[in-house]
Structures are given as structure tokens and as C-alpha cells.
Amino acid sequence: xxxxxIDTSKGIDTAPPAVDPAIDPRLLVREEGFKGYLTEFKRxxxxxxxxxxxxxxxxxxxWVVFSINDGTYLQASTATYIAYYAVGIGLLGxxxxxxxxxxxxxxxxxxxxxxxxxxxxxxxVQHGLNPWLAVLLTLISGAVIGxxxxxxxxxxxxxxxxxxxxxxxxxxxxxxxxLGSTGTINLPDTGxxxxxxxxxxxxxxxxxxxxxxxxxxxxxxxxxNLIEQGRRRKAGVPFRPTSEIALRVVLxxxxxxGVAYILNQDKxxxxxxxxxxxxxxICDFVLRRTGFxxxxxAVGGNIEASRxxxxxxAAIRISVFAIAGAFAALAGLALAGTTNAAGQSGADPNNLMxxxxxxxxxxxxLFGGRGRVWSALLGVLVIESINYGLFLLGLTxxxxxxxxxxxxxxxxxxxxxxxxxxxxxxxx
Length: 428
Description:
The chain is built from 17 helices and 4 strands. The protein has helices spanning 25-31, 34-46, 53-69, 76-101, 109-126, 131-156, 160-179, 191-196, 207-235, 242-264, 271-289, 291-301, 303-308, 313-337, 349-361, 374-392, 397-424; strands at residues 6-7, 12-13, 184-186, 341-343. Strands 1-2 form a two-stranded antiparallel ribbon. The model is unreliable at 19-24 (pLDDT under 50). The chain crosses the membrane at residues 50-69, 81-102, 109-126, 132-153, 160-180, 200-224, 245-263, 269-287, 314-337, 352-369, 376-395, 401-418. Keywords: Cell inner membrane, Cell membrane, Membrane, Sugar transport, Transmembrane, Transmembrane helix, Transport. It is found in: Cell membrane.
């Protein structure tokens, strides 16, 4: 019988109703222009998809409050201080973002960072090894430690909390053993340590350095967006219109050149900050543009579904903990660079707590499957902005801990409420 027939007894057309082809909602948004994006933004906020909005608003409030209480807060020297001292905790935060995306935690990164600084000091100072080779071996050591802990977690089924808590204690003991009775080893101003110390600025503090970096960042975004637009256009899938790309590039240019101008009013852009931003960009690309990154989000979102999709969950878990270990090692070198010495303070538990706080405050979910490496940057900006503001006001460390703890709790509450709202809206 034909699919399209007529019931002659009743004279009724029994043909199935025509079905309109599904239209990608992103196409509708872009066809409506900026009005469509505003509508989409409102829909996301109502649905609990807040993104980085809470932390950006929080940063603005922090800057306004401290500037009102101390007129010297909004100076170029403040920006330089925050840009430099954010690096060590920020690097720890990047590694933790990878782990948190799995819905897990790594409590050992603080001790691994202190151990890494000790390993580097022993190799480069006591044994006279080439400083760059010492850095390479240090980073490999951090990755091996992370992979070892990840293997115990992924293969033996021991909870990551327990494995890394044991690592937190054990690696701190190894660090103290390496440092010996003195407990401190001074580091030479060579190799990577030269670029991680507080007195090293991009192009030796040349004013053009900051603008060169800003220009490179803007150009990279423009080229990357145009390449993606061409690729998606060729594949026949939704793509960003040129007007939207232009707006994004202009906004980035205003921010990048504005920051460069402010830093140039003091000493320029710290080399450590340049390294940190470069790694942020690379990790963001890995998470958002590669199959490996998509597998991390998949495992963090639903382990069983990932297994059925053919993802090697154990391999993903081990590799993520290895990445966290490598970043912890690099963070250890950065933290040691602030004092030009590897010491017991390198494994300060507060570094771990602040790194976790930075990742969560910046917007990475503790429940897994949601977050970006830029969370580490946003979160550490909040923490260091509070630190420096309280320092200018002459408040003691106890106030710092209480305020940072309150901000962390607020971030977790916002994340929990956001997830609840998304579930109610059918988006989680």
C-alpha cells in the first residue's frame, strides 16, 4: 500500500503530516544577531549555566571594596604583585582542574611541589647537573609520581582521596630527607629558575614586551577563530559569523592591551606570568579541541557511559593524575623561585588548599564533568587580590583564611545550586 493514500469511504487524506526538519538552535540564535545572544544568555542564567559570571562579578566587588578602603590598591604595583605571585598556586590549580573534571581530588600536589623543588636543588646544586636537564628530570619525576598514584586508584580501586592523602604524607617525608639537616638549599640564578624569580621580566622589562604579548594573543585568537569558521562552514555545520568573531577579538584586544599598559606602568610583564599564560592556552586547547580532552569530560560526566563508548577509563585516569603531578612539579619550581631556595615551606599545606580553592572559585565543579583551565586563573586572581588587599589594610593572616574560606564556600554553594537548577530545567 502506498504511504500516501486516500480513504475513499470518508474522503479523508490519510497521508502522514509533514515533519519540519530539525533546526540547530545555535543557528536561530546567530540569525537573530545580538538580540539572539542576549536571549540565549538569559536562558542559560535561568537554567543555572552561570559560567564565569559569578567569579567575574566577585572580582569587581573585591577590587572596588579594597580600592575604597585603600587608595593605593588600584596601582600598577598591585597588578605586578598579583600577576607574579599568582603563578605558583595557579600552576597547581591547572593540574587540579584536570583531576576535578573527573570528579576526583588529588591531595598530594602540595607535597609533590615541595619534593620537586628539592629534587631540582639536589640535582642542579649538589650534583652540578645542567639546570635545564635538572628541570626536565624534575618534571618527569612529578609525572611519574602522579601516574603511580593514578595507577593505584584506577587499577586497584583504592579511592583517590586515600591514595593522594597517603602521598601527601609520604612525599613530604621524602622531601625532608632530600633537603637534609639544613632544610634549605639555595638555588642558582640559571636555567628555568632565572625566568621564575621575581626579578625576571619579559624582554628585560622593555615596554614593548607587554604589547607584543597582547598582540600575539589577539592575533592567535583571530586566526584560530577564522580557521574554525572556515572548517565548520566547509562541513556544513553552524559557525560563528564574522561579526561575532570581530567583537570577540576587539574585546580581547581591549583587555589584553589594557593589562599590558597597566603592567608597563610598573616593571612590565613577569616572565613567570608569560609561562603560566602560555600553559593555560595549551591546556585549554587540549581540553576543548582534542579527543583526549573530550574523553576527560566524558569520564567525569558519566563513567559507565564512557566505558560503553569504548573509552579506556583507567588510562584516562592515570594520564590525568600524571598531568597533575607534572604541573605540581612545575609549581614547586615556581614557588621556590619566589625565594630562590628549595625549603620545607615548599610543601606548605596551605598551597594545596589555596590551589583547590582557586580551581573551585574559578568555576570548576567539584562534581566532575564541568570546568575549564581558565578557572585556575580566575580563582587565583580572586585569592591573590584578597591577599594583597588585606596586606595593605594591615590585617593578619587569620582574617585572610576566614575570608578565603567564606569565598570558597560561596563558590561551592553557587555550583551546587547551579547543578540543581540545571537538573530542574532538564539540562543536567
